[in-house]
């Protein structure tokens, strides 16, 4: 038995059961028991604990600390929340939100590995929003795959397992040479062990999108090394060829995300999100992306129609020759522009020389001393005016005021030129004073269309984060609520979450009644309800053979999509039992009593006189057996 189950970690988290196991850590379901913890008592949490055998592995300990540091920075509705981190010599664990749902991998498997275009856009958009937040905080996931994404009953996703996330360039260099991550989803540069950045996550998202739309991984093989080699050198089979029903705009978006060269991918999660939004607004849009080649980085593979037209217009015919083989007047027209250009260049050179001479002479005549600028950032205006440089007139300050949430009102937070620069005495220096934090009021956007709501919030100077939720009282695509709520004062530049109504994505279904059906009809009905036929056992009954007698789960209960229903099927009526042969003494072999088996149809109690008799005794015995 696991030695942590039943124990309390730091007196706060009572471990109940093991719910998952990864490469370097185990995940437990636990309950908050303390009164002074980060969540209320009784809250169910997930606790990720570094395995004991890895406690003394410095590389794995560093990776675990990296994960703690990475996910503690993140706060987003599409990322699993972190409540607590404990790292000491005896135990290292992370306390996270407990997500009751299935992984995206399980959902894909139940749907046969392929999703509709609409579902794909819905899920990929949430993943990109989570990555946009992570990348903005300097965190690159580096192990994006369906197994690391949880799906809730309301259709919302939660990304998890930032176990090999990169936080800084230094951390990334320490991982150089290691192709860490799931090989089917890692980028080519990650497979080669090269440095990775946020475009590596974009590639992994592209692979997931390819799989969702086609039902196939772009690269697969029995050997993981072979898969990694394919990621580096092979081109996947065309998505348009695999799934011709997929809108071509989604094919273009997927291909750009999966480009081999990082510079050909979307530069950010936001850029890919904008492409998806463009598709949603106009499904027939064509992006016609251009790509650079590895051999000639500045040369694009495709030219636009306008570029081709410009090239044709710039093409000049070869100069004609006269009958004597000498060039005609065309040669003269080429010579004149060249002569004109030389003249202009000479004139410019003379002007530059004159300017340098005059500038040197003016500097010689200028007796003003050089002044090394002091640092005024963090001072108030009065403090700056009292400094020697400004009070003595060595420099002339110019004042500006702007809102800045990092400096209290009245304090200088920016100067130009910066401190340490050498300027001439009397030169002006721009000093910008903070007006403090600018606060705005979140408006009531309930039932607004998403685009209008975003526009209003951005006009107020706040960042907007869009997430989706189910609310049957609000039209699909309209605002349910905001977080912070309407009427709240928030700082300009902070983030306001918009909750947008969407249709409910059900992951369960009602089990239909199968009793009285044939097995084939029961199978068909189950498929229509996104279920499958499970085990079949047989029992004798008065029902025709092949008829369903009972089922498990029972009719009317709720079951997960694509789960199995077991049935008991009729094997028909039970066969008649064969009688035992009579004994040689003329008595029945079934009872051992001579008087019970040889009763005649006339009602006589006298036993038959011989076992060879064909009289009424034996016939009546058979008649009694047959009913």
TrEMBL record:
Residues 589-601 have a biased composition (Gly residues). One of its GO terms (molecular function) is kinase activity. Residues 309-330, 573-627 are annotated as: Disordered. Pfam families: PASTA, Pkinase. Residues 13-280 form the Protein kinase domain. Keywords: ATP-binding, Kinase, Membrane, Nucleotide-binding, Serine/threonine-protein kinase, Transferase, Transmembrane, Transmembrane helix. Coiled coil: none annotated. This is non-specific serine/threonine protein kinase. The lineage of its organism: Bacteria, Bacillati, Bacillota, Clostridia, Eubacteriales. The gene is pknB.
